[in-house]
Design goal:
two-stranded parallel sheet, Rossmann fold, about 300 residues, globular, NAD(P)-bd_dom_sf, seven-stranded parallel beta sheet, alpha/beta, 10 helices, Epimerase_deHydtase
């Protein structure tokens, strides 16, 4: 059972179906394009009864639900409560797609699963509190839980990411491309296919329950280096506009950037994710960034062509 049909939930549903698993993909309206081997279901999991209906009959529940940034502090705790109660009631395992927010500012230090949770932002403290609740539920024997943390997404279907809809359309058409913060700093991006592979793998390995895992993430390059790789692939220089403070740009409107302001440190210090643990434990390897960019650019070409 995959809760949430955004880029991560959709990629995960496809990956689980590819592995031969019976899959239900849940969103509020039960709508979306047909996916081979995937059944869609409508449910409002912000409500306890909706979460119960969504998880009925599940062996593993994957929580990939997210909400608009300005609503997260209010809504995500309600979702967590409903999901934990529902999963506990049906006796399923729970795999949660998580963010790097609980770490807060790391001053450029490499992030491992042992990095302290030092969030000072409201959204970071909220995520840390939820993660503590998930892990407490596991320790207390109420729900078996594993957390999979990801860096910023990149890949086919990914729009609302700093390496998504603000970058690739401009790269392909000659339009403006934002360079958030200091693009000369290393910044990890997690390929959406690796998000799916990592979560599916955690769902298949109960021995990984009760802890945080970093999902497979390619070694960090600077965003400037990634922009150069994109230039090589699209055959034109990027028209990079420096965005050195949180202000509206392209698809990121004032509401989004006002909500994101407290997290802007992610682009003014190095953001380096180490995913060695999950790679060694389960024999995984992240897709190289070059291949990830090839797939992403191909997807955006089709999107812009209206196919």
């Amino acid at each position: 059972m995959v809760l949430g049909s955004g880029p991560a939930g959709t990629a995960l549903a496809r990956e689980l179906a590819r592995r031969g698993r019976p899959v239900r993909l849940v969103n509020r309206k039960g709508e979306g394009p047909a996916l081979e081997g995937v059944e869609r279901r409508a449910a409002d999991i912000t409500a306890p009864e909706g979460a119960r209906a969504a998880t009925e009959g599940a062996a593993v529940v994957y929580h990939c639900v997210n909400v608009d940034l300005h609503l997260q502090v209010e809504v995500m705790p309600r979702i967590a409560t409903a999901v934990l109660d529902a999963v506990g009631a049906v006796g399923a395992r729970l795999v949660v797609l998580d963010t790097l927010y609980p770490y807060g500012e790391t001053h450029g230090r490499v992030m491992t699963e042992d990095t302290p949770w030092n969030a000072t932002s409201a959204k970071g403290r909220m995520r840390a509190d939820l993660d503590a609740r998930y892990l407490a539920a596991h320790r207390e024997g109420r729900v078996r839980v594993a957390l999979g943390r990801s860096a910023d997404f990149v890949g086919p279907g990914v729009l609302n990411s700093s390496l998504g809809g603000a970058v690739f359309p401009g790269a392909l058409t000659g339009g403006e491309v934002p360079g958030f913060g200091d693009i000369g700093l290393p910044h990890s991006y997690t390929y959406i296919g690796d998000v799916a592979t990592g979560l599916a793998t955690l769902g298949e390995h109960p021995d990984g329950d009760g802890r945080v895992w970093h999902l497979p993430t390619a070694p960090a390059l600077t965003t400037r280096e990634i922009f150069t790789m994109i230039e090589e692939r699209v055959g034109r220089p990027l028209n990079v506009v420096t965005v050195d403070e949180p202000r509206p740009f392209g698809p990121f409107d004032a509401v989004f950037m006002d909500a994101y302001a407290e997290m802007f440190y992610q682009y003014t210090e190095a953001q380096i994710v180490d995913s060695t643990a999950i790679e060694k434990a389960y024999g995984l390897a992240p897709v190289p960034l070059a291949a990830a960019l090839d797939a992403t650019i191909a997807w955006y070409r089709e999107l812009l062509a209206g196919r």
